């Protein structure tokens, strides 16, 4: 089983998304987002799935929900780092990994 690490930016993005959902939508939507992230983290830990590649050689991405994409990198066979939870409506040219 792989170990999953969270970058500081990933953690900030994650909580910013939850705060936004709680303020603008509902607790149910926030919980759905949390559950989706937990499910994806479980899949990444299992190592049975690798998601779509990106223009960055070691970075992959997966859709958390329609509005948010998770960017992560595989450090080695036993370690993964979550890099960003990027809002798909933001300017992608400002994405820094």
Question: Can you give a write-up of this model?
Answer:
The chain has 97 residues and is α+β, with helices and mostly antiparallel strands. The protein has one domain: RelE-like (YaeB-like fold), CATH 3.30.2310.20. It contains two helices and five strands. The chain has helices at residues 8-24, 27-46, and strands spanning 3-6, 52-53, 59-65, 68-76, 79-87. Strands 1-5-4-3-2 form a five-stranded mixed β-sheet. Helix 1 (8-24) packs antiparallel against helix 2 (27-46).
Sequence stretches where pLDDT stays below 50 over 5 or more residues: none
> What series of H and E elements makes up the topology?
EHHEEEE
Q: Which assembly state applies to the chains in this document?
A: single chain
| N/C terminus separation | 25 Å
- Gross CATH architecture: 2-Layer Sandwich
**Helix run count:** 2
The number of E-state strands comes to: 5
Strand order of the largest sheet: 1-5-4-3-2
Largest sheet: number of strands, sense, barrel closure = 5 strands, mixed
Q: Could you say which overall geometry the principal axes of the C-alpha atoms support?
A: globular
CATH topology: YaeB-like fold
Average pLDDT, all residues: 94
| Number of self-contained structural domains | 1
SSE diagram, text form:
Elements: E1 3-6, H1 8-24, H2 27-46, E2 52-53, E3 59-65, E4 68-76, E5 79-87
Parallel strand pairs: 1-5
Antiparallel strand pairs: 2-3, 3-4, 4-5
